Amino acid sequence: MAAELEIGDVRVEFVAEYVLKTLRIKGDKWTKMYVIDDNKQLCLDFFDKPDSQTLVIAITAAGGLTVMNEWPAQFKQKAVSLVQSMEFFLKFTV
Questions:
Q1: Distance between CA atoms of 1 and 56, rounded to whole angstroms?
Q2: What pTM was computed for the model?
Q3: Is 40 within 8 Å of 26 (Cβ atoms)?
Q4: Low-confidence ranges of the chain (pLDDT < 50)
Q5: How far apart, in whole angstroms, are the C-alpha atoms of residue 17 and residue 2?
Q6: 54-59 and 79-83: which strand pairing?
Q7: Quick one: 37 exposed, middle or buried, by C-beta within 10 A (0-12, 13-18, 19+)?
Q8: 29, 41 Cβ separation under 8 angstroms
Q9: What is the distance between the alpha carbons of residues 79 and 90, in angstroms, rounded to a whole number?
Q10: What's the pLDDT score for residue 56?
Q11: What confidence score (pLDDT) does residue 41 get?
């Protein structure tokens, strides 16, 4: 499913696959979200920077996807949250 999206980064493909299955959405929603440079950068920062420990991907009211670093104060749509621990980051960067 996510392999068909031609993302090029295994880590992002894993997240895409998880989001698509969990939220039960089609791959075109992920593609529309990921082609926006700010969204792509938030996803990559989650993997590359130790201070970015949370990634929230949510369905908007219009039916698209949005990416955030933290949970919003009030949110009524479906969302997926990914959290990484500092120990995990240190293992794979050393």
A1: 20
A2: 0.79
A3: no
A4: 94
A5: 5
A6: antiparallel
A7: exposed
A8: no
A9: 27
A10: 93
A11: 92
Q: What are phi and psi of 58, to 5 degrees?
A: -130, 155
Q: What is the DSSP string of the chain?
A: -GGGG----HHHHHHHHHHHHHHT--HHHHHHHHTSHHHHHHHHHHHH-TT--EEEEEE-TTS-EEEESS--SS--S-EEEEE--HHHHHHHH-
* Number of C-beta neighbours around residue 12 at 10 A: 19
CA-angle at 22, arms to 42 and 86, nearest 5°: 45
What pLDDT does 50 receive? 78
Domain segments of the chain: what residues? Answer: 2-93
pLDDT, one tens digit per residue, over 85-94 is 766 555 555 4
Tokens (6 digits) for 93: 């960067």
Instruction: Quote the CA–CA distance of 43 and 12 in Å, as a whole number.
Output: 7
Tokens of 87: 């120990």
